[in-house]
Every structure is written in structure tokens, then in C-alpha cells.
Amino acid sequence: MLIPHDTRIALDTVVDLMNTAPESEPPPDGTGDGPGDGLADIPALYAFAERHHISGVGTLGEKDLAAVRDVRDSFAEVFAAPDPRTAADLVNRLVAAAGTTPQLTDHDGYDWHVHYFAPDASIADHLAADCGMALAFIIVAGEQERLRRCEAPDCGHAFVDLSRNRSRRYCSSRTCGNRLHVAAYRARRKEAAG
């Protein structure tokens, strides 16, 4: 699946945003509660914006934080949508509410790409428009099943499966995938020895 660079960046942003939700954080050692909200306060929102090179952020406040959390929840609904029609309806509402205004731009060393938000958009509208359109790209391509949650029992991280054969099951093969494979191996050895 060929995905334009700016769409890939937006998809990575969607995934990272969703994985800031408290319920998406894996608990340490599979016991107890996991870490709290990754967007717990205004400094965390600034850090998220900086990490994803979100331009034109300006001064952020509690209203921005609440709006970005709402966008995060909307993205989670898209990932959980049972079919493409439901996902499309959710994306359409999200993008429309953001006041989408497509514009070609070539800022910060990137080649020409499309911004779907107005130049003075809030950070929440920026995320809803650009990231919503990236999700729309996946739905239009008939690839909604690529929007997934990690299958590890103690993890709920979101990810976009960009593997050629759509076979990715874990948010990270190095952490969740490897941990489950090692556990299965140890269980087989214990059963064989017992």
C-alpha cells in the first residue's frame, strides 16, 4: 500500500495521540494500573505538539487540552468501528466539525503537501482535520482493517498495520510480540518437562 509521506506522518500522529489515553497504557508487569493520561496537563500537550512538529500551536489552555482529548476519543471510535460505513460517518463528522480548508504548503523542509485545516485553526481542529483525512485515506483504500489494537492481553495500544499481508498483531514485535512469544515458549518447555 503506497501512502504519501504527509499521510504517514498524520497516521503516526493519530496512533501516538490515541496511545496517550490512560486505557491504552500497558500496566507494568501485567498487574495493577498502568500509567495515567499521557495528556494529563498543558505541558504534556505542548510536548505532544512539539514531538509531532505541529505548526502554529500558539498559546494552549485547558480548553485546548479538553478539545484534543475529545478528538483522541473520536479517533478511538474510528479504530473500533465495526465496518467502513460507520468509520466513514465518524471521520466525516470529525473532519466537518474541524472546518476543513485544504491548502497546499511546503513548510519546514517538507515538499509540497496538503494541510486540511485553516491557518488559524486550534490544535484540536488541526489534528481532527489532518489526521481525520489520513484515516479517510485508509478507509477510501478499503483498508480499514489496518486500523488495529495490540492483541497482547495487557496492552491496548493502537497501531496502523502497514505490513504487506496485513498480518501484524502487536503494537511492537520487540516488546509485546517478543514477550508473548517468550511466554509461550516457556509454557511449552514447562509442559514438556512436567
What does this entry show, briefly?
By secondary structure, the protein is mainly alpha-helical. It has helices at 5-18, 42-51, 62-80, 84-97, 123-140, 173-193; strands at 103-105, 113-115, 147-149, 158-160. The protein contains six helices and four strands; from the N terminus they run ααααββαββα.
Description:
This protein is mainly α and 194 residues long. The protein is built from six helices and four strands. The protein has helices at 5-18, 42-51, 62-80, 84-97, 123-140, 173-193, and strands at residues 103-105, 113-115, 147-149, 158-160. A two-stranded antiparallel sheet has the order 1-2. Strands 3-4 form a two-stranded antiparallel ribbon. The termini are far apart. Residues 25-33 have low confidence and may be disordered.
Question: Topology of this protein?
Answer:
Blueprint: H1 5-18, H2 42-51, H3 62-80, H4 84-97, E1 103-105, E2 113-115, H5 123-140, E3 147-149, E4 158-160, H6 173-193
Antiparallel strand pairs: 1-2, 3-4
Descriptors for this entry?
single chain; 194 residues; mainly alpha; two-stranded antiparallel sheet; 6 helices
**What does the oligomeric state look like here?**
single chain
Count all strands and give the number: 4
Can you give the mean pLDDT? 86
Flag low-confidence runs.
Answer: 25-33
Shape: globular
Would you list the SSEs in sequence order as H and E? HHHHEEHEEH
Largest sheet: 2 strands, antiparallel
Helix content: 40-55%
Radius of gyration: 18 Å
Continuous helix count: 6
- Sheet with the most strands: spatial strand order: 1-2
Q: Hey, roughly how much beta strand do the residues contain?
A: 5-15%
What structural class do you assign from the helix and strand content?
A: mainly alpha
* N- to C-terminal distance: 47 Å
